[in-house]
Every structure is written in structure tokens, then in C-alpha cells.
Amino acid sequence: MSDKYDVIVIGAGPGGYVAAIKAAQLGLKTACIESWTDKEGKNRLGGTCLNVGCIPSKALLEISHKYEEASHDFAEQGIIAKEVGFDIAKMMKRKEGIVDQLTGGIGGLFKSNGVTPIYGHGKLLANRNVEVTDKDGKTKTYEAENVIIATGSKPIQIPPAPFDGKYIVDSEGALEFTEVPKRVGVIGAGVIGLELGSVWARLGAEVTVLEAVDTFLPVVDQQIAKDALKQFQKQGLNIVLGARMTGAEVKRKLVNVTYEDSKGKQEAKFDKLIVAVGRRPYTDNLLSEDSGVKMDERGFIFVDDNCKTEAPGVWAVGDVVRGPMLAHKASEEGVMVAERIAGHKPQVNYDCIPNVIYTSPEVAWVGKTEQEMKAEGEEYNVGTFPFAANGRAMAANAASGMVKIIADAKTDRIVGFHVVGPQASEIVAQGVIAMEFGSSAEDLALTCFAHPTLSESVHEAALGVAGGAIHIANRRKKK
Q1: Backbone angles phi and psi of 103, in degrees to 5
Q2: Which parts of 387-476 are beta strand (E)?
Q3: CA angle 241, 164, 198 (to 5 degrees)
Q4: Is-contact 247 257, C-beta < 8 A?
Q5: In what order do the strands lie in the sheet with 244-251?
């Protein structure tokens, strides 16, 4: 087989494997390089997301949520579930089974679409040559007309709390505990920190989340964030804001943490410390000096609006480029690049990329927040509707949270869509579709929604933008 390809993709995560499949579907001879191996040294496709990120974390979130419901919520609904327990070994086995099924499925998709998998570490050389070093240290060079870099990201390590893999762990290590720690510390109250903290809190751990900034979820609409904070605190998560960590030391199988907050120096002891302060691009040993691809000081690859680098025929997508580090964003960029290589002219609408925190309640949003609209001096109207007034949410014993819609005051076009509550990750898709098609709040208000459904809250929030909600007193808000 020839070692020259139309497209070589470096990285088989959600950006890379999707780009490879789409390129092959468009008739391009395509190969995809991946260096990931499992604990037994077997090659694995899927990258961080499928192996140690999105998928295994959601599996544990779902399992722990069901346990939480059975333990605490069933009784008030008339269901008697005595002596509810859990088997953490089986939980982990189920998680791994889901990962195995999905990562193996990518191999099947590669085969059916004609994508050639190449296992090893890929390094881009000059003139779109790619050097691959396998796990035995052997190297081989491949040629390509186009190269797509999709190597993803890895957890950030902070000097006060270096990972030891046992007591101080990153997000990957937090998915591998073999027993429930008595006390868990989480550094970072972002998406990953809140999700992992929720898993172990539901299973019985005392969880303290230390966040350096004073505002909870500053990128989230603050009305939504404040509602979510109240719910998390009610669940027992101890979230400490304005807490700047200064050190962590393991003594007698405990992690001794020091931090500073508004009250001064503080100390805390944990059985496990999860560091979840963010991720950085995985671009280590990725580019030769003459590759023609440029990076910034943080390791992000410079690209234009269409993910093209400064080197001819070289593209980059996903976590290694600007924008949110989201699997679905990476996939959309991967498809766009593959289609552009094939001569089409697609674009990604970055204004319509949804964000989700898979806690309970879930938090999801797309578009602008109310604080952003204020900062920009834009006039806007807001409609909100609480799930407490939604019949389906009440029936499901999940009536916390709300739907919030922000519309431009002059055009009524929806510019922000925010949800905290049950199935927010699914409901937000309605906002994404509406915004993608340039819908007005009136468009949603004139749409018939099935009854009883959670989505009726979207309908009522849209009606509320113009002060016409039916099932709550209207408080039209105009700025």
C-alpha cells in the first residue's frame, strides 16, 4: 500500500476521527494516526473524550444519579427501596464496557468508510510529511496532500498540587477510584470539577470545591449560575469561592491543602484531591521547526476562521485551536475542514455552539448571557419560566431550575438561550436550532409544544419575552 494520502489526520478523538470519516466519504484517500493505548498496551481510538473524558464521566454521572434518586428521592414518590447499596467495581466495569463498545465502534466505522488507522505518535515535518513513531520506537514517514491536526488537550497541572496518581489526581484519575473516599477536595469549580465532585458526593463522599475566582461560573448567565449554585449547595457540595490554593502535601495518606480566601489562610485535609483547573493543548513534540505551523505561548495553533494554519495544506481543529474545548465543536470543525479540502465552502457558526454541565440539575446554554448584553450596551428583552410551574417536571420530581430566553429588543431575534434544570442538555438543542435559523422569540411563542413536556417551559419563556406567558405572572424585563 502506498504511503501517500490525500488526507492524514493526526489524532483520533472527536475532531480527528470525524474528520477522517468525512474525508473518506468525500472520496479522499485518508489515514488517521493515533497514539492512545489502554492499560494493557492495546491501541485505542477515540482520544480523551471516549477513553477518559466525556463518555466515562457521563457513565458515572448517570449511575451515581440513579443511586442518589433511589436512596433519597423515591420515598417521597411512594416507592419503598430499602437498603439501597452499590458495587463500585461493577460501576467501573460498566463504565469500561461502554468505553470499549464505542472505541471499538470507531474501528468499525474506519473499516466501512475506508479510513486507514496508523498507530503511533505523529509529528508533522516540512512539506506535509508526517513521521510516526510506534510504541516500539520504530519510525516511518508518510506523505499527504493535506494534514489535519486534531491532537486534543490534556489536564493542566498546577505547581502547588503536582499529580502523584494516587492521592492528588487529574480528571482521568478521578474516574478510577476503587472505593469512595471519605473526603474529596476538588480544585476548580468549572465544568469538570462540578461533574466529578457530583459523582463522588452522590456516592457518599464529603466534597469541598475550591474555586479561585469570586464569581460562580462566570461564563454562565448569572441568573442561571446563582440558581445552580443554590441547588448544588442544597445537595451538600461545599463550594468555596475566592479560594486561592497555595499548597498540597501528602502526609499519612491524607492530602493537606492550604489556601487563602477572604478570611485569610485556611487549611483542609482530604483523602483524595482532584485538580480540575482546565486543560491545555496537546502539542508536545508535534511539530518540527520547519513544519511551517505556528503556535502561541500556551501551545494553541494559529488558524484562520476556517481552521487553516499558515502552512499550505495544513489544518487544525478542536482543542488545539481557539474557541471552547468541546467535543462537538471539534467534530463540526473536522467536518468543515474535510469538506473544504474536497472543494466545498462550509463554515462553522461559532455563535451557535452549545455548552453543557452534566450535573443535576444540568446547566446548558448557547449564545450571549445577560451580563454580556449589558456590557455591550445592547437593548434586549428577557423571558423566563421556572420548572416549578411545569407539570411534567413536577411529575418527574425534578422541578428545580428554569428556562431563560434573551432576545434583541429591536428585532426580537433570539441571541441567548439558557437552561438550568432537568434534561437541560436536550432542551438547549431547541435554542441552538432556533438561533441557527435566525428565529425570533415570537417564532417559538407561535409554535405548538406537546403537553405535558419539559419543553413547554421553552414555549412559556418565549411568550414571556413579550410579556405574554400564560402559566406564570408576567414580569417583562427590558434593558
Answers
A1: -65, -40
A2: 402-408, 414-421
A3: 40
A4: yes
A5: 244-251, 254-261, 264-270
| Residue spans of the chain under pLDDT 50 | 1, 478-479
pLDDT tens for 386-436 read: 999 999 999 999 999 999 999 999 999 999 999 999 999 999 999 999 999
Element housing 459 (H / E): helix 456-465
**Which cell numbers hold the place of 104?**
471499538
Pick from 343, 316, 321: nearest CA to 150: 316
Residues linked to residue 132 through DSSP beta bridges, in sequence order: 122, 140
Enter the C-alpha cell of residue 153. Answer: 488537550
Q: Where in 335-379 does DSSP place strands (E)? A: 355-357, 362-367
Q: Are 438 and 413 in contact (CB under 8 A)?
A: yes
Helices (H), 81-204: 88-113, 191-202
List 65, 418, 451, 471, catalytic entry = 451
Give the pLDDT of residue 1. 43
Count Cβ atoms within 10 A of the Cβ of residue 17 and give its class: 0-12 exposed, 13-18 middle, 19 or more buried.
buried
Q: Are 149 and 123 in contact (CB under 8 A)?
A: no
- 57 in Cβ contact with 174 (< 8 Å): no
Q: What pLDDT was estimated at residue 39?
A: 87
Please tell me the predicted confidence (pLDDT) of residue 2.
62
Q: How much of the chain is in helix, strand and coil states, percent to nearest 5?
A: 35, 25, 40
Query: Is 121 assigned a catalytic role?
Result: no
* Residue 278 φ/ψ region, left for φ over 0, alpha for ψ in the -120 to 50 degree band, beta for the rest: left
Q: Does 281 sit behind a cis peptide bond, omega within 30 degrees of 0 on the bond before it?
A: no
pLDDT tens readout for residues 336-380? 999 999 999 999 999 999 999 999 999 999 999 999 999 999 999
